[in-house]
């Protein structure tokens, strides 16, 4: 009886006029000693249960969010001829990587209200309620955080980089830098019309260190004392070896 009621309830729900069907070229990335970055292809289609609306701005937006971490943003000022830290802000849960790609300029693809609701643009994602220490009242620190990470290649906005064919098929290449943080990279895809989100799709990419990189990472985090002693031993052996080679050539 309960199963019958659930079937009737689902059958009575209205079908969405447009839905996103998407996938990734790969959902796992392995970081080894020779890893120098990667590129993920995000592709999909828009499934329609009704004729496509006419005379509206359609857009596809893709965001990729890396594992979150706590960051301190500092302001430097010149005092008595030297640069010193004068102020700082703690950012709790800032994404280690954040990428935004869109098929049309974001000013047309997304209204400010929808951006606040879905936290899509970089500035909006960094002022989410769960990051209470970074607010819109700290524009200088927010701009500095975005500027530094953009220069490092860990934050980026690529407008008009999502290719849409026949208003149905879409694809985009998302570049991932070499210094990725291990963990899940949440990927969201939004379909908008006239700046309003009409559907969204979410998946994830898992990044994991393997081989020697994995062993060193695990040792440094799980056994920091042993890692420090091993590093010291390697430094001593390397120094002794270099000295021995130098004496050999000198003689």
TrEMBL record:
InterPro entries: CHP02186-rel_TM. The chain crosses the membrane at residues 225-249. Keywords: Membrane, Transmembrane, Transmembrane helix. This is Transmembrane protein (Alph_Pro_TM). It comes from Jannaschia helgolandensis. The lineage of its organism: Bacteria, Pseudomonadati, Pseudomonadota, Alphaproteobacteria, Rhodobacterales.
């Amino acid at each position: 009886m309960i199963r019958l009621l659930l079937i009737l309830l689902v059958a009575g729900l209205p079908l969405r006029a447009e839905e996103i069907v998407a996938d990734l070229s790969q959902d796992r990335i392995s970081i080894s000693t020779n890893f120098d970055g990667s590129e993920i292809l995000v592709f999909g289609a828009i499934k329609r249960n009704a004729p496509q609306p006419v005379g509206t701005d359609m857009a596809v937006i893709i965001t990729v969010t890396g594992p979150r971490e706590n960051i301190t943003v500092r302001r430097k000022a010149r005092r008595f001829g030297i640069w010193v830290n004068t102020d700082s802000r703690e950012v709790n849960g800032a994404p280690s990587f954040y990428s935004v790609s869109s098929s049309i300029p974001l000013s047309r693809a997304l209204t400010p209200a929808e951006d606040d609701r879905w936290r899509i643009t970089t500035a909006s994602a960094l002022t989410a309620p769960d990051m209470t220490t970074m607010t819109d009242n700290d524009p200088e620190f927010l701009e500095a955080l975005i500027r530094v990470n953009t220069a490092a290649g860990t934050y980026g906005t690529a407008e008009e980089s999502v290719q849409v064919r026949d208003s149905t098929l879409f694809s985009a290449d998302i570049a991932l830098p070499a210094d990725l943080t291990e963990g899940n990279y949440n990927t969201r895809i939004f379909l908008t019309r006239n700046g309003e989100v009409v559907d969204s799709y979410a998946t994830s990419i898992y990044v994991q260190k393997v081989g020697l990189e994995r062993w060193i990472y695990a040792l440094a985090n799980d056994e920091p004392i042993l890692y420090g002693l091993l590093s010291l031993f390697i430094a001593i052996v390397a120094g002794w070896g270099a000295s021995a080679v130098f004496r050999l050539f000198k003689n």
